[in-house]
Amino acid sequence: MQVPAPFDYERATSVDHAIGLLERLGSGSRLVAGGHSLLPMMKLRLANLEYLIDINDLHDELGYITVEPTRIRIGAMARHRELLESDDLAAHFPIVRDAERVIADPIVRNRGTLGGSLCQADPSEDLSAVCTTLAAECVIRSSSGERVVTMDEFHRGPYETAVADDEMLVEVRLPIRPGGSSAYEKVERRAGDWAVVSAGAAVWLDGGVISDARVGLAAVGPNTTGIAAVSQALRGQVPSEEAYASAGAIAAQSCRPTADGRGSVEYKRHLADELTRRALRRAVARATGEES
Amino acid sequence: MQVTMSVNGDEVTSEIEGRLLLVHYLRDHLGLTGTHWGCDTSNCGTCVVWLDDEPVKSCTVLAAMAGGHEVRTVEGLEKGTELDPVQQGFMNCHGLQCGFCTPGMMMTARALLDRNPDPTDGEIREAISGQICRCTGYATIVRSIHWAADHERAAAAAAASGALTGDEVVERVLEEADPSGGSETPQTVGAGSES
């Protein structure tokens, strides 16, 4: 039987209350949202803390998915199932539904949250790769106000984020840019597993030419990785198998996989190449209306 | 700490440690051992219960997190003395061998049918994809859930038509909902009016 080490449980009733608790209880405290990453780590004693602050009652305050003209704002407590089922998200960012379909399983998706996924900062985590691909902005709040950071700034390393002990991730913003679409491709050992490798792609077309593209990879480096060289290589290109192949080659060279039970370095580089091609191909097909 | 929640409609209050997991609370404190405890890592799904009408893996939820909320376990699935159609389906279609995964499977199936009364094979398999049966596979489990869906739709139709009432409806429904037509499902046992 695996149980966490003893801790004191607190329940927050509002974002301000949660931040107040974090300030009062200090670095020995942690927020728990869905708990599907943190609780297993506590059972394994990889995470030990004095106070656990339950923020599930904040779903009403932070469970929104709001479409604005230039962005979609998503509350940190939006659960995986809500992201999967959101037609607004699927219409603007089909990559989100692609990814949510392969995150854990439906029952885990009932509990897990966007904010929890990002704050876990696992290098294999799918939504982090999605947010990296989409150049998401993360809104972090403390008692002195809010600050907004990019995904590159947000993830400092494996299991480490820009959120300080007395701060809280409250919102993720996905910028809407016309003429684009997106897709997510993942290879896993079995249904619902962490990625062996996964690749997200977002492309924007203008007059039949790629005006911009972004590729984000998971599980092949210390963080989910946005590869700037792919963007540079694709800008100005006509979508083609050759263009996807060159992007795939760059992705394979740029990533930093390690060998583990999920595969060798060589195999993971191969996947980074192939999945980048597939994600780009699908994103372009969607942008041109050839695939929904 | 003191925690109060509703379990199968009854309010319960207990003094617990903050670190106590919901699955252990249900089993060890309340004696509701229908909820099983398997892999302990949110994979096998044998600990599935409902928290506010949604299936969750209770080995990854703290009992304290359920405080103030409604929990439903397999013990709360039957209605009075009548089995839930999902339970009847698992009996009729041989949806279980050892039975270890069965309570969780049934809780997930019930939630699926409440949202989607006419699921496809694919939708059923997706719904139970976070739950593991190591006895034989999923064919009879999928068939059991179909049985329950067919049964409930037939019952609803019969009741809506007003042609039959009471025991007649039940009798007719059980006959009509014979699991997917007899000869195609030779493994089926106890089907039809015998149940």
From TrEMBL, chain A:
InterPro entries: CO_DH_flav_C (IPR005107), CO_DH_flav_C_dom_sf (IPR036683), Diverse_Substr_Oxidored (IPR051312), FAD-bd_PCMH (IPR016166), FAD-bd_PCMH-like_sf (IPR036318), FAD-bd_PCMH_sub1 (IPR016167), FAD-bd_PCMH_sub2 (IPR016169), Mopterin_DH_FAD-bd (IPR002346)
Keyword Electron transport: no
Pfam families: CO_deh_flav_C, FAD_binding_5
PROSITE patterns per record: FAD_PCMH
Record domain FAD-binding PCMH-type: where: 2-179
Domain of life of the native organism: Bacteria
Entry annotated with the keyword Oxidoreductase: yes
UniProt keywords, alphabetically: FAD, Flavoprotein, Oxidoreductase
PANTHER family: XANTHINE DEHYDROGENASE SUBUNIT C-RELATED
Name assigned to this protein: Xanthine dehydrogenase family protein subunit M
Organism: Angustibacter luteus
From TrEMBL, chain B:
Record field: compositional bias (Polar residues): 182-195
Transmembrane segments: none
Residue ranges constituting the 2Fe-2S ferredoxin-type domain according to the UniProt record: 1-77
Record keyword Metal-binding present: yes
Gene3D superfamilies registered for this protein in UniProt: 3.10.20.30, [2Fe-2S]-binding domain
Segments of this protein annotated with the region Disordered: 176-195
Keywords linked to the UniProt accession: 2Fe-2S, Iron, Iron-sulfur, Metal-binding, Oxidoreductase
CDD domains attached to this UniProt entry: fer2
Protein name per Swiss-Prot or TrEMBL: (2Fe-2S)-binding protein
